[in-house]
């Protein structure tokens, strides 16, 4: 059987592979690209709009990006950094809109105010102090704070109707937030790649990754229909398979994956499509996470726009499943255990008892209990208007730590082989929203010979490339305004 040779193999048909493939096609149009997706179409796991919050994470409302230190102090650097990264993604998408790669920006991104909403005197004090710091940051210009129920009612009436009088509450709002359909974006980017010579193989599962003497990789796949095996040879392999990235990188036997494990967390959302309810809420409203809850479990009441149709989501309600993908095996977690990662995994279990208790409580919660959590946000919520949907799986990174033996990391991490011939992405949040800067870092690490030439092209695709927008107020305003115009985010 002959082995087809290509420049790049992308494993997984989600937003990460779509972003990297599009970036490479823009930077090096003559390179050949193969994409493998084990499902019947792309963008059906974490990139699917009903499997994620679709926020366009910019730290405008997500309080976990600006936690309170033990001494009560607050620090803005992480929130600013997340926002910087999202602005890079926006600029990249804007360039693709101008090129016609993404012909209709409203099909994947829409203007949606981002809000926070907290209850209780301590939380109100925290939110006020957060606002006082962020209002001076150029990328957060326009942020508003209020503890006046009448003002908050104007911003988001569903938060205030039938709320108990005298309750200590506060909210912030910034109108430049967005709602992003990463499923639609993924489809459009991969359509562009296929139209420009890339090959897409759906229902094709990668079974083996074997490095060759010349530094290339043999990628062995098997058709899910017909069970036919195939072998391809690639100069570079990217593993963008969501939760399944860990076992695939383990199959590659690269030293860099040693010590890494995965902690899968499942979840559910309440969803309503009732036009009478949906019409009363136009915002993404984030609250504060419960004690012991993982950051991706911060409660939020979100406007979602999918295929032009608006809905509301509330959640997520976290749970546990040993699967690494919604469509994968119940044996994923035990099958990922190795001698080199069992120590860090046990250390994580020892140090995260509160998280375990929280997940067990979520698993045991009845639908009535879940509705009560929604009613804390929206007192008028009625059971007949809402139904539960299952969210995507999130596999958090567990890795070695010199002090504690192992740590659970709520973020994303790029694993790259020493020679740059293979790389993969582990983790979840903020994930898709920062896909573009993540992939810029990846190509810099994996293609050091080509990167100096590519920098010029990246500068054209991303006007702020190599600078920090937040350090220059005028530049920040210009970047936000110009991308808003191209992406049709301007408000009348």
TrEMBL record:
Q: Which reaction does it catalyse?
A: (S)-malate + a quinone = a quinol + oxaloacetate
Q: In which pathway does it act?
A: Carbohydrate metabolism; tricarboxylic acid cycle; oxaloacetate from (S)-malate (quinone route): step 1/1
| Organism superkingdom | Bacteria
Residue ranges of coiled coil:
none
**InterPro entries given in the database record:** FAD/NAD-bd_sf (IPR036188), MQO (IPR006231)
Q: What is its EC number?
A: 1.1.5.4
**Does the UniProt entry include the keyword Ribosomal protein?**
no
List required co-factors: FAD
Listed transmembrane segments: none
Going by the UniProt record, its keywords in alphabetical order are:
FAD, Flavoprotein, Oxidoreductase, Tricarboxylic acid cycle
What Gene Ontology molecular function terms does this protein carry?
Answer: L-malate dehydrogenase (quinone) activity
PANTHER family recorded: L-2-HYDROXYGLUTARATE DEHYDROGENASE, MITOCHONDRIAL
Which family is this protein grouped under?
Belongs to the MQO family.
Q: What is this protein called?
A: Probable malate:quinone oxidoreductase
